[in-house]
Amino acid sequence: MGPDVPLLNEYKQEFFWKRFPQTVLGGPRFKLGYCAPPYVYVNQAVLFLTPWLFGGIGTLLCQLQLLQELHAAVLSGMLMFTAAAGVQALAFYAARKSGTVERLGAPNILVDEEEVEFTNCVSPETLRFIAPGKRFGLNVVLHTIISGVLCGFGTWYVFLGRLTSLYGSIGVSLVVFVLSWVTLCIAEYSLIVNTATETATFQAQDTYEITPLTRPLYIFIFIAVDLADRFSNPVPELQLACQTLHVLFLFLPLLWALGALPPLDALLFWGMEQILVFGMGGSPMSSNVRLLLMFAVSTGITVCNYFIPSALGVVLFSVTTGFLLSLDLSQVGSLSKSPREAFRVHGLHDGGLPPFVPTSFGWNLGCREIALYVTLLLVATAEAGLLHQFFGSTQSQNLVSGHQSHVSYLLLILFFLCWALREMQGAYVCGGMFLNPLYPKGTSNVQTFKEKNRGLYLAAAIRRALLYFVSPFAMIAFLSMDKSLLSLHTVSISVGLTRAFRVVWQSSEDALLQMVVVVLGRLAAGGHLLPGWDSLGTGVQLLLVGLLIDRLSQFLAKLKFTLTVLVTSWTEKKQRRQSAGTLLALNTSLWPLVLAVVTLSALLSAPLLPLFTLPIFLVGFPRPQRSWPGPVGTACPCPDSIFYQQMSGSLASALRTAFSRGSLGSLAPGSHFLGRFQDRMVWIMILERGYGYCTVNIKGLELQETSCHTVEARRVDEVFEAAFERPERLGFTQGFNLHWGNALTPCAALAVRAYSDARNVLSGIIDSHENLRKLQDDFMKALIWLLLRYCVQKHRGFLWRGEEVSASGGTKSQSSQFAQTTCNQPFEAVVVESNLGTSFGDWSDEDDLFGPQPPRRTVALVTAEAQPGHSALQIGASLPGSVEMDSLFENMALSALQPLQPLGLSIGMPAVDKSRNTEVLKESSHLNFSCPQSEIFSLPSGWRTAPLLPSRLLSLRPLFPEEWFRFTLGRFGLAVQEETSADMTKALKEDEVLKELHAKVALSCLILVGAESAFTSPSYIYRLYCGDVPWTEGLDWLSSRKELYQLTLQAFRFSFKLLFDQASLGPMESPEELFSTLEEYERDWYIGLVTEKGWHDGVLQEKPFLFSLGHDLTMGTYTGRVLSLQEQLIQVGRLNGEGVRGQWANLSWELLYATNDDEERYSIQAHPFMLRNLTVQAADPPLGYPIYSSAPLHFPCL
């Protein structure tokens, strides 16, 4: 798409220009898009001005001195309450009438869905259009009462006498009076008559009708300040605030229209988060419930601290509670379980237990963890108590010569050491501007990468010890000897010190930086006292410094994001719209205004919203760091989601190591990271941070890349290549980060266990006659091996288990040294043909054109019907390389497409001569084996009754590989014998009855799947691999023996994998090698289709290898897909968090307010610098569409 794609399509433009005036005015709909009677507009105008009328009556009576101010305000409020009750009664009446009266005539489907037929000025349709009413009766009462209170207090707020006393001018007072009533009318209309859609929308749906309360709430805040000034002693600052707020009151409609003021829910959670972080030393929480609980507990502790009479008691209480609150106490229950269970409860591996479970410190709450935490707490409290008792009261006013001076210098040393050691861990230094010469580059092998990183690992261990075990005690020592502890019983000092003792543990790195800034300020002042600053106390100083550092870092990040949007709107040709020059000139000429917008958004900790991602900057409404109201973990799942789900556990373990080493830089809740591996994109967001733990959310982006996704993915690869694949030695100019302006800054490479996806075109393999001639023999050998293994497993009391049988000999399959014993799931989604019902999907050249057509049923469904408790098979969308193409053939499987044949051949199904039934081989259920051990290898009696003539079986008898049968029988015989006996093994091999039994069953299966002649057609092989077995005589008999059918299909898939491996690596040289290869297939491989549930389960259970056969219709080729589980390097970079928040704020505005859901809209097009398309994908549904999103993952960082 070009850069001049419309921001809004024509329909959305018309919709927007009808909605926006309604938002500005608070709800009146004066622009309808169709003709309406004049009384519709008149009625709305009268209702809009009604509050002004009642307020004017009260103001007039007060000005005439007929009523006092309070009585006049009460009168206005009562009148408004009566009017609001009347409006609600009319709305209720209209709702009942429209619900009982039937409209005559058929509805016109061509009429606009919003058009209303008005009959008269008080008809139910008119009333419902003007005042839709409330959904809940409680809201009817509540909103009516609030409307009366609002009108009364609003009248009092804008009395002319009050305004004249504030500004001393009648003219100014009249202007403020008139415009203030416009604000009040807008709020009253939105509350009572019809609620406008707010540009500041946080929730997708207003379930409980909270939106009508938003505008009155802000008016009540203004009124509260005015009342405080009226009823308190004269305070110049408070009077100045009233004067300012009365002027700002006039601009409330503009702020509402621009969406700068948050809705109630966003305001509540944002305010609690800011107070918790900067007022109480906590961290943003990963959920709203956790935020509410932590806020309540922290508030209670702060209040308790204020009332403790002893300074020593305050110190001990603050140190203890600060340490306990900085731990993730909500996870104590899950951490107390075994490491394996704790790993599962954490949500790190939802699809089954992985082959490895982290056993390092912190993954479960064991004796060593409890001992460490108890020791830290005891040492900290003892240190704080002793230092305060002996040095707190003798602390000098001069920092340079006091007892704190030694600790202050220690803090300076610790800070610079931790900063330097952290900078060494990443790919870039100095804020991402220069390459780190110490970081290994050009390494793709995991082991080599770890070897080169050993020096950095040592430096990381030193940093971790200094940061987590030395710095907290140094900071506690600094606080315990502070002189402000002597004047605790002031609110500010008590709150400041409570926060300071907690943030030491909650965020040690940030607390160390804040204390260093305070120390440097005192050292810079020398022996001089700064009255305004020193009187605040150390706790409040640290609070202000922490707030200043946070806002400054936000300002710098927002400024970088602003410059990126501005510059790339002109330099990037694909982003250069016709209006780019005009917008660039406006931003340049109005740069003080742009800088003010950036500053204001940083001060409010609100996202900087680029409208339509153009260089038009607005202040988005403040919201929590998570940006989204819903719970973490919602996604739009698809079959590709399993790859992210599988790697989430290993990635969490790697992130834990990277966080503790400092490889990803300073961690703060709200930070975003992007990981890249092959065709996979991982989005990582920090949700919560405390002492020794971190909570993150991992999202997986789509694998089927769109054009926009591909453009940005290519740029991501370029950014990572510049950081990780350059030569070791570089000059100064070559070491500069050429992608510094990009939203992505590379940090580190992490070793993660993930699947490597390899796809091969099978031309020359599947169509080679030499290879196909061996397929029949390999099929028989694989089937014999599986039949004998089935007998061994049945003897041991379990079926379909992958318990390893000891064997020797090499293999030539495409695998590595991984070995894992897992359950081998039965093959599902296997299409077979039966004689029941009809189905359109079975049309082919081999169908009977003159009779009923056989339907298609899957073996999975047949099995599920016979086994209660099994859920129906879940079939999702196809993966790349999948054998199902639902988008082209609707519900018909690709495997159902049969090769075309000349007209006149195979028109009907083969006729079945019923007279043959008398000649079918009949056998008794008891067989006379010559060896006692042969009973173990006997097959079920139902498998011996195939409806085939003995002569037909006899003619195929040479195809049975007797030598292979004896070899395999000998190997399995050793596995079931309690004592190894050469004579017993020999007798077992010479048992002719057992051999003939297996020969008959194997040859019957060969015939029933149509493989009695050599395979010659790749399409036939493909169909048979997919389980789409062409009809043959006796196929229904085979499909009814579910276990035998699954063994047969598994044998054919094994044989095709043998063909694939031998064509690539050479033929098998000995029976031992073939036996070992089949063992490896059974143990380490899943061989099937990507659309089967077994493939899904195999990925989640971390099968070392998976193989699938596919068919590319567009190219007309057959493809093989191999997934290999191995440790891979995933490159991870830090994203500009403010850029992400800004784009998400625009996405929320654009979709929830402007309803601009066009898939080709401008704001979703590829942007190589802002990574706009990837950022939109990573948003929470319904606005974004990540295919995987984990629940909040809690893991240790010590």
Automatic annotation (TrEMBL):
- What cellular-component terms does GO give this entry? membrane
- Give compartment(s): Membrane
In the bilayer, the protein is annotated as:
Multi-pass membrane protein
InterPro entries in alphabetical order? Pecanex (IPR039797), Pecanex_C (IPR007735)
The keyword Acetylation is assigned to this record: no
Keyword Membrane applies? yes
Q: Which family does it belong to?
A: Belongs to the pecanex family.
Name under which the protein is recorded: Pecanex-like protein
The species this protein was found in: Nothobranchius furzeri (Turquoise killifish)
